[in-house]
Design brief:
Elements lengths: L4 E6 L2 E6 L6 H19 L2 H7 L5 H30 L1 H24 L19 H31 L11 H30 L2 H21 L13 H14 L16 H4 L7 E2 L31 H19 L1 H7 L5 H7 L1 E2 L14 H27 L7 H32 L10 E4 L4 H25 L5 H29 L19 H25 L4 E7 L6 E8 L3
Helix pairs in contact: 1-5, 1-6, 1-7, 2-3, 3-4, 3-5, 3-16, 4-5, 4-7, 5-6, 5-16, 6-7, 6-13, 6-15, 8-10, 11-16, 11-17, 13-15, 14-15, 14-17, 15-16
Length: 584
């Protein structure tokens, strides 16, 4: 087990060099930046590549990207399982990056070599759709990219946080700063992708547009592997899911046994738990007491070599409790993604109908309006880290300023206002269309500036700076130490479900608001004749209900309690033991 120190020979004496810390950040961020460049640069404009280069029908192209997006959002569960079970974060990230690299090379080759895509359309001639062989290359490339993302996404953020030893007083405030800057760096990469890479793809060529992120990914792999001597690696200790199942089975098998009067009578085995308690041992909590029965010792149990399907330690029981307690907070984040997802659908459609000219010759692409979301998110994140934390610290006494639960709550409130404001902007847009007699003309540009949409885009960016980063902090901090990659996968799963719920909500609204004369809140062809503002306010109402739900969950939430072993600056031996909540 790598405990964060490296033995070195110096002048005949054995010394120890501390691993991890800020020195590892350039290597880790390099991997994340290029992964985001590749993913976002690929997704932001891929519908154009599939329809204009491979000549796919629009519906087929949309379904292809939907399937790819769904797969990419689920593979982090597989990557997290592999990482936490046997491979470890470093090896999982490395192998996943190589798999992703192969997928990107394959896709880039299909854009460069003429024989790997259909011939260009000529005049009004019917375009030739890509052949089965050409589509096979596309699908294999997408699958490899999805698998690669599944290994990188849940592991890289947790691996970066692992570089800061929470038991070291000199590093205990570094983790939350890392999450702020992780999201800031990720946002910067996304900003470059939706501007520079999309421009290159549209105006220079797809070979360069896909080749640049492919080359960047190759460089990032070399850089990430090059930082290996500096990394603090926490080795995996078997499948965490198996441990959780064992606790559940043991509790069920002992369900009829009376509860013990005192928690000190529950089974403890520090030697058995040594490999999964490096960051501190979880202490007994009073919630979910039915699970405590898994730690009750009976005459049939052998405490020296226990059958873990019958007897679990308190630490292992508390691992399962921690995961269960996190569930309601995890679920509350889904609807925020549902609201955020509208930027790529209906907000984009609004932008297409509005005046987007900055000058007579330059027009803002509708898809580039997300730049305002990203810029606001970056500005808010930097302001929060440099200013707001210092101000809040004076009132709360917390090093991180406010708890991640408070931070998430602020994000929920801002997101609620984002969709609320969007409804009024849509009313203004339609009012101008009506005044100019353009309600019936969906293809005509309405003489209203697209900058009316900036408030809703910016509010979503501000909400993400609070909610999404707070969500990441929550998952990493409250998950058992041996399940941090799995916790990051839960974060990506909430994003996946948020998008799926958006699809379901749009489908239901489209179906049940259909009138006898063809009217609809969300019409297929002419947004001017719809009631998009009602849809925005429906999402606002759902977010308000979700906010109430979150406040109840946050009020009832019990932070995990750990027995922290602090280390001295010049020794790896424990010199102080502190019982602490992880919120401090």
């Amino acid at each position: 087990m790598n405990t964060g120190f490296e033995k070195m020979e110096k002048n005949g004496n054995l010394t120890r060099r501390k691993k991890g810390g800020l020195a590892t950040m350039p290597f880790i961020f390099a991997n994340e930046v290029t992964e985001k460049l590749a993913v976002v640069g690929f997704n932001a404009n891929m519908i154009s590549y599939l329809t204009t280069q491979l000549h796919m029908p629009l519906t087929k192209a949309a379904n292809t990207l939907t399937n790819f997006g769904g797969t990419s959002s689920l593979t982090p569960l597989l990557g997290a399982f592999i990482s936490d079970s046997f491979a470890g974060k470093f090896m999982t990230i490395t192998v996943a990056s190589i798999i992703y690299q192969i997928g990107m090379i394959s896709l880039t080759m299909s854009a460069v070599l003429p024989q790997l895509r259909p011939p260009p359309c000529k005049g009004e001639e019917v375009c030739q759709e890509a052949s089965s062989r050409q589509l096979a290359i596309l699908y294999v490339s997408l699958l490899l990219s999805a698998l690669g993302s599944g290994g990188i996404r849940p592991c890289v953020v947790a691996f970066g946080a692992d570089q800061f030893d929470e038991s070291d007083p000199n590093q205990k405030t570094r983790t939350w700063t890392y999450f702020n800057w992780y999201y800031f760096v990720m946002g910067t990469a996304i900003l470059v992708a939706v501007t520079v890479l999309v421009y290159i793809q549209d105006n220079v060529g797809w070979g360069w547009g896909l080749g640049i992120p492919t080359l960047a990914m190759f460089i990032s792999i070399i850089a990430f592997i090059g930082g290996y001597p500096l990394y603090r690696n926490l080795n995996p200790e078997g499948s965490p899911f198996t441990r959780l199942v064992k606790v559940g089975v043991a509790a069920f098998r002992k369900r009829k046994i009376p509860k013990v009067p005192n928690s000190t009578l529950l089974y403890q085995n520090d030697e058995l738990d040594a490999s999964i308690t490096l960051g501190g041992k979880l202490l007994h909590s009073d919630q979910l007491k039915f699970l405590d029965k898994a730690a009750i010792v009976t005459e049939e149990d052998n405490t020296k070599t226990p059958d873990l399907w019958r007897l679990s330690t308190v630490h292992r029981v508390e691992e399962l409790k921690s995961i269960i307690r996190m569930g309601p907070i995890w679920a509350s984040g889904i609807l925020l993604i549902t609201a955020y997802a509208q930027q790529g659908t209906f907000s984009l459609q609004q932008a297409k109908t509005m005046n987007r000219h900055l000058t007579k010759s330059f027009e803002i692409p509708a898809g580039s309006m997300s730049v305002f979301t990203i810029l606001t998110m970056l500005f808010t994140t930097a302001l929060y880290d440099r200013v707001l934390i210092r101000v809040a610290r004076r009132f709360t006494g917390l090093d991180r300023g406010i708890t991640f639960l408070h931070r998430m709550g602020i994000g929920f409130v801002i997101s609620l206002f984002a969709t609320f404001v969007a409804g009024f902007v849509e009313m203004k847009r339609k009012k101008v269309a009506m005044e100019h007699g353009l309600i019936e003309h969906s293809s005509e540009i309405i003489p209203i500036s697209v900058f009316w949409l900036v408030p809703q885009y910016s509010l979503h960016g501000m909400a993400e700076a609070f909610m999404s980063i707070g969500h990441l902090e929550f998952f990493y901090d409250q998950a058992p130490e041996s399940m941090t990659s799995t916790a990051m996968a839960f974060f990506w799963t909430s994003i996946s479900l948020g998008n799926y719920i958006s699809t379901l909500l749009v489908t239901l609204v489209h179906k049940f608001t259909k009138g006898p004369n063809g009217t609809n809140w969300l019409p297929d062809n002419n947004l001017n004749k719809g009631k998009l503002e009602y849809f925005y306010w429906l999402i606002t109402l759902l977010q308000f209900i979700n906010l109430i739900y979150y406040l109840i969950c946050a009020k009832m939430y019990t932070y995990k309690q750990i027995q922290v072993h602090h280390k001295g600056e010049n020794s790896s031996e424990d010199n102080n033991i502190e019982l602490a909540s992880t919120t401090v």
